[in-house]
Amino acid sequence: MNAPEPSSALTRLAGVPPRVRHALFGLIAVLTAANVIGTALSPYLVLEHPLLLIALSPDGRHVVLVAGAVPTTWLVVLGTARRFLALVAGFGLGALYGDAAVTWAEQRVPRLTRVIRFIERLFERFGLFLFALAPLPGIAVLAGAARTRFVLFALAGVLGQAAWIRLTVEFGEAVSAWTQPILAFVSRHVVATTVVVAALVALQQWVAHSKRSARPKDDA
Residue 119 and residue 131: Cα distance in Å, rounded? Predict the structure, then answer.
């Protein structure tokens, strides 16, 4: 992942030790790799190691599938902690690069520019109340750029994520009649389904890498 470093970010970067930037991008790299690995191995992990799946890739679909298979408290605590790390990464980007981080995101995904600016206006109006209701990494970037106090950011992020994961668990339990046949099929064909999903994830990563490589260096 390339760091956004337009001139408007230089002031913020001047006083930041290199090890802090390295730690931030190291965290992002680890979280990204964990999510890819967890998704690739999800058919196997959802059956044999559901908590490990959540630790690697706490996506909503994974939470729904493992709901009922592990104690809810463990699921909420682990899922919240893992998702909070992603929020910290977003907050760090915003704190380091300020508005340049938002501009950089718009340049990389132009079709979402209006959405990003709309969310930015909402955050300017509602601040951490919006973040608590929608604790997303993108809004964490805005919180970091706004120099929000980390303690308040952390409190809103943890409470928001815990609430969303709890709701997702309840939804998973409610639709268990539909998910159980899926899990039963995966259980009968765990090797085949894992190979297929891993291949699809590898293909997705290759396509994404090819698009990044083809992008002009000015946009990187």
Answer: 10
Structure tokens at 84: 């909070």
Structure tokens at 59: 């996506």
User: 3-state class of 31 per DSSP?
Assistant: helix
Q: 53 and 45 in contact (C-beta within 8 Å)?
A: yes
Evaluate if residue 135 carries a pLDDT over 60: yes
What's the whole-number average pLDDT of the chain? 85
pLDDT band at 133 (very low <50, low <70, confident <90, very high): confident
What confidence score (pLDDT) does residue 33 get?
96
Say whether 215 sits in a helix, a strand or coil. Answer: coil
Parse the chain into domains and list their residue ranges: 18-219
Global confidence as pTM: 0.82
Dist. CA 68–CA 197, nearest whole Å: 23
For the beta carbon of residue 162, count every other beta carbon within 10 angstroms: 18
